[in-house]
């Protein structure tokens, strides 16, 4: 007998500052399906998670709501767990990063890193709110855009959401703190840095050991080429988090203690279960497997910083990091205005969770490509696959058995049925699940469902019942059909756990395991059939969209009519002075220390330039590379603290996740002038 694998699985921690939406659910459903598959196959698989509970946004949100950070994160933790439970996401432990276990682990790792020479100190300059007595991240400073051709009001301290200019908070005209409304000053502060480059050789070996998708490895190689940068792991008081031992008014940055929350959640579980040993999973010589499921926007942290921190602290590194793409809805980024920014709770108020579980599974693979939730296709696929194919097999056969044989299955299968082929597909489908090729697994399963329905169509039990003497044939055919349905439900159990449970009740069996496919149900009494799924009505998806729509207040930056009225008319000669060129984005990198900026290398048709763009909130680097866009090519280069910006990317939208770069139509080439 093969030894059971010891597997520990995590999903990225939801930030306790807002509700879950369907974009979040891609990751948790992907992870849950993979974990349920491992358990169904008999593996010793444990799934832990926690709420990400530290940072300035949580501190400020709590203040705004006139509560404490502790009360806020407790409330959000309860909300998360309720939504997860109703989406049938089954954690072995869900915890919080604001815990004694996490504090002890973080402090111990920091001491080990310090003793190993992997922590350095240096003085940095930051915007400071004297009224609130705190240093301000760039997004907490607002003012008038310094671009003389723009001048938009109420812009963040790193980039303008109207014209796309990038700058530092000190460049803003009349800058103010978003917290107090007062003008910030610049102050120096000593910060602590993790020396990532100390682990460059170790990380190159780790990255190239088959632990990541090839597309992720290619991206990481670019970061190795430019050199690994020190990582600021500290923040100044006031801050909600863990204080750095031995320091005054210094806190660990949330991104240091958040991934340690994986370990803390598992440690919390170990304290409750006598059969688990923390060291057996996290010691350097551990034989257990550890997998992190994440979104592609946090690849940098999980595939460089996190393995280095673990290695430098004396712990094992992850077996693999599995990244997925973002969710679009109806082919576009989720939008509150369009009603496609759908909260998990809004969906649950209208439809069964397993419909979305199945649709995501039918779209997911192992790559970091985005997946699209097309609401029309969603309804069509659920209606066709689950209702029209899988459940249809059971409903077609059950009636004949209940009416003519009191629910008793035959003592043998139809020797002409496809049972052998169904069982033979087992390992192929299992490998698809193992490799996270869920879409391929669903195609395999639905091909079998088609085969089962063709078998019933060919045998025509409804005609056989009209002639005496065919009773045994009808019973065998329907028994075979229900056994085919039973195999399908085993294969679909990781995706459809509740439907499978209902099917188990209908079949009058104990919980199905993967091995049950080898032993058919014969001479066995089933229960009366009840519908296992119902068709999605277009009105239901329309209701979800309607419930998700919000009346957005027009901002100065996002109301076209106000903008048009505020700007002077110009002559054609003035417009002709602006040199707009088509450019191809060839490389994109995050900017250390900037919340909203991305560093882009653009090709203007033989000439490459560096441009800083404030679009990080809406785009991951992988989304932009290879795209065509439009650049202001004759804008005077602007020296910033991050480097020289040699142009401006054109984009539209109110800001946040709703920023949309201008993309020319098919046939445009880099260097072409826009007239």
Task: Give an overview in words.
The chain has 675 residues and is α+β, with helices and mostly antiparallel strands. The chain is built from 22 helices and 27 strands. The strands form 8 sheets. Strands 18, 19, 20, 21, 24 and 27 form a 6-stranded antiparallel sheet that branches. The longest helix is centred in the middle third of the chain and has 31 residues, at 375-405.
- Estimate what percentage of residues fall within beta strands: 15-25%
Total helical segments = 22
Secondary-structure content class = alpha+beta
What distance lies between the first and last C-alpha atoms, to the nearest angstrom? Answer: 71 Å
Would you identify the regions where 5 or more consecutive residues have pLDDT less than 50?
Answer: 551-567
Write down the overall geometry: globular
**How many β-strand runs?**
27
User: pLDDT average, as an integer?
Assistant: 91
* Radius of gyration (Å): 29 Å
Largest sheet: 6 strands, antiparallel
* Oligomer status: single chain
Helix content: 40-55%
